[in-house]
Amino acid sequence: MLKKGLKIVLFILLLLLILPYFIPRDFDLAIPEKPYANSEFFTTQDGTRLHAQIFEPEGTMLGKIVMIHGLGASSFSYRNNAPYFAKQGYLVVVVDLPAFGYSSKESGIDHSQVKRAAYIWEWVDELDELYGNEAWHLVGHSMGGSTVLAMSNQKPASVLSMNLIAGAVTQDTSRSTWWLSTPLGEWLKVALRYLIINEDRFSSILTGAYNQTPSKEDVLGYLQPLQTQGTIQALLEFVKTSDNVTIDELKVDLPLHLLWGDEDTWVGVENIALIQDVTRVDAIVRFDGAGHCVHETDPSFNDELLKLLQSIEKKN
User: Fold this and answer.
1) I want to staple 161 with a disulfide (CB 3.0 to 4.6 A). Which of 31, 75, 119, 255 is the partner?
2) Separation between Cα atoms, residue 129 and residue 131, nearest integer Å
3) What's the pLDDT at 1?
4) How far is CA 272 from CA 9, 59, 105, in A?
């Protein structure tokens, strides 16, 4: 009887080890050739393809901004911001980081913040040839705040200001990821494909991030880029190689602005003090009642950020 029970247990274990490899774990939708009317693609020297929405300035160009999204997001997350700043006279480049949005999702990409920063600078350097060599304002939300730090370390002379929206820059991302190459990792792919990257789950996720109920348009805007071919594998490779650049690794003295929702439960306002302990902060703007995605939900956000950018330009 014991031997029979042992055989059953071993059979179940073997089934659990093999089964995920036979379950489809990828999405069928290919990345569109033109996701948005203002979409542009750029291929880096090592063949990584970046997508961005580029918003041309209305009238005389007053400045240049790079906007970088947070974890799980894409250029869609700046839909309420980029058009506003273009109307004010700014060239606005809203980049999709590799593994997210409509940028590269191939295997073998280094997702460290240092590498991401280098990719973006490759593209930005080409844009400088078209729009002039004036320095850029860098805006990063959550995880994108770490990309801002990496970009600033690499080319400080090309940075006019660093603007962190709930910047996730106080903790590194070192972790044990060996298990992602085992059947457990394959089961994670199954969970991502069928249990997490869907409308119901993302509605719940965004409710927490927004501190309010998202619209169906909000949910679908986040989902559509994720539900494209290569996302699932790319997310696992992102977890393996996404070394953060933390605030204590910032090597330059540049204007630093912090913008934070007071009700952010993802990257809480206590991180402001942790950042101030390490470096000079030139301005802090807190938004009453706002959650983690304050730039998407608070109507006053654009005006507040504009004041910060203009204050820097007046000094220069």
Assistant:
1) 255
2) 6
3) 59
4) 51, 36, 33
